[in-house]
Each structure stands twice: as C-alpha cells, then as structure tokens.
Fold:
Amino acid sequence: MTSFADITTMGVGGPIAHFIEPTTRVGLIEAVEDADSKGLPLVVIGGGSNLLVSDEPFNGVVVRDARRQITVPDEAAPVEGGDRTVHVNAEAGANWDDFVAFTVQLGLEGVEGLSGIPGTVGASVVQNIGAYGQEVATSVESVEVWDRETKTTRDLTPADLRFGYRYSALKASMYAAPARPADRFFPTPRYVVLSVTFVLTHSAEGAVGYGQLAKALGVEVGDRMATADIREAVLKVRAAKGMLEDPTRYTSPAMAGTKREANILADLRRLAVVNESAGIALGDDGLPVPDRNRHSCGSFFMNPILTADEAAALPEDAPRFPATLPDGTPGVKTSAAWLIDHAGCHKGYRVADDAPAGLSTQHTLALTNRGGASAADVETLARAVQRAVKDHFGVTLVPEPVCVGVLSDLDAPVSDLDS
Structure:
C-alpha cells in the first residue's frame, strides 16, 4: 500500500486507502468527481513537496496526475523580425523542473530563475511559486481547471487567478482564513488544475533579477546572461541552502515515471559533485548519499505580515519590508527565518539530541526529516519553533505547506497567505 511517506519530499505520513494515477484528462476528472460524489476525503497531489500529512491511515482518495506532456503550439523558432512570443502548454502532472529544463533547452526566457523548485506544473500556479526575481504568475496566460462545485471545466485568466505572493484564487478556495481549512474544499482546491498555458519569449538570454544570483554569476542585477547559465547558477545557489529535492527519491518505485530520466541523472550528478566536495563518497548502491537537508517541505513557515504597531514591537534590527494587509491597508512584512534564529532555534536545532526531525543545518526555515522521522516528530518540532517565536516576539508563525491532520488547531494571525 502506498503511503504519504513514499510520495512526499518530507518522507512522512500514513498509508493511503485509495491511490489513483489517471493517465487521461477524462480519467483525472472522473477520479476527482467519483471521490466528491461519494463524500470521500480527496488529496490531489503533485510532487508532494508542499504537503505534511499525519501518520494515521488516510481513508480517502489520493490522485496523482500521470499526464506529463509539454507542447509548443507556436513556431519553435522565432520569425525573423517578428513577434518573439512563444506559448507553451503543459499538463498539470508535468514535473516543474522538467518544464523549466525544456524551455531553457528550447531557447525560451521567462522561468529559468524558477529552476530546481520541486513539484508539478499544476501545483506551481496554486502556490504561485517564485524565486530569484521571477514568479510563475508573470508567465501564465491561462489555466484550465475542473471546477468541483459547478462540475465544469473552465479557462482561468491571470485576473481570475488573483495571483499574489505565494497566493492564488486556487489556494484561497481551500481556506476560510489564513491556515484555517475551509469546510468543503480542503485539502484540495475547488479548482483542480488540468493544464497551464505559459507565454514565454524566444531568447537564449535572460535578465539576472536577484542580488545573490548576480553575485554567483559575477555580474550586476539586471545584466543579461545565457538562460542555461542562469539555470545552473540557480541550482548551485539552491543546493548550497539545501533547497533542492533529493534526486535519489526518484529511484523509489512509488516515484517511477514522475520525472524525466535525463533530468534525474543530471540531478544525481550534481548531488554527487556536492557530496564529493564535502568528502562524502558514493553509497554502497552506487548512488549519491541522500542529503537530509533536502528531506523537507522547503520553507515551512510564511513570512508574517504585521500591523505597524506589531512591527514596532520587534527589535530594531528585525527585517522590515513594505506589505499589504488583507484589508488593503499598509502592513510590514518581516522574516520568519530571522525570527526563528533570534528566538534561539538556530540551524540544526532539534527538540532533543536524538530527535529524528530538526531544522536544516543550512537554513532555519526548513524543517527536515533527519532519518526515521514521523509526521508527529515534525509537528513537535514545528510547535517548538512556533512557541519560541511567540514567546520571544509575540508573533505566531503560520505553516506554508498544506497540513492534513497536523497543526490543525493553530490560531492563525495575518500572514503571506493574503498578501
């Protein structure tokens, strides 16, 4: 029996009663509709990188879209002197980094800065993923969805999707308030993504839009570089933070076929190089030794958005950035990583020396499975971090992953979810 531990990047979670992998558009819609008609709990999962599920058996349906085709309906090469716009359509089950690699290899600009983010194309628009000066929202033309309420397909525009920082109307449909699950559509949105059409630019060069990335490339922010070079630099910067998924997970039978083999092999080579530089030899199976810092959900807590009075109560050196509160009034965003570190939960923090869950040794925002952890262990760590930050600064951190059966009694404050 497949478990959430088998199909999530954190590697925790209980057994699944019904695990379905539809290979057609109709099959995907039927699987969702069948679960809904029977009143069964439903999880539509992508790469499992933004999901934390309890250790208890999940007596519902988990659907993983096995459609992974990426197509280019336009001319593959630009017309001389003409429009350099290129549309690319990807089915929701396509691995996100497969999509990025495909566009870079095709000589397209627009998503190269989003290299290495785990998950699928479908999940990318739910979360509005972003990194290193780019957001998926800026490249989306339309999203085809199945509306679980009206039981129809719809094509949603960026205006319909109401993209914000790590936010979309799709994500909003799951929550009654920040981190408070809606009664009806949770943990799967009302709108299930079927495919996404992106609008990119035919160019072998892209703009370097982030300081840390510019430093890695030895250029200035705004300079243009080959998109292939930008992609490699992003992957190196993410690897240094432990913010890449562990490519050895794709050797598991539960993950077979979910990512293109050529890209898995490239990721394994990159991990082997990183390990070699740290003096870590290959494992007995000939594969790179897994990096436990990568067994996570990525950034686990969202950056809080505070009122001016709340922000004024923070120490003078706490990071502060302009932001907007849910009611449209000005707010102040601060850094969850800074709060965690200054509350005494430093890199590598564990609730006990032998605890199997701990903060990444490279990044305080990542909660990691150090080996043999359960969802309960991760929850214990999350609550310890939340408590420390609350005690020190009066701020309650809100988890970024979708949490099913864990961390469900949080009294949620204002957060990025509505920014």
About this structure: The domain at 301-404 is CATH 3.90.78.10 (Uridine Diphospho-n-acetylenolpyruvylglucosamine Reductase; domain 1). The mean pLDDT is 92. The first strand starts at residue 16 and ends at 20.
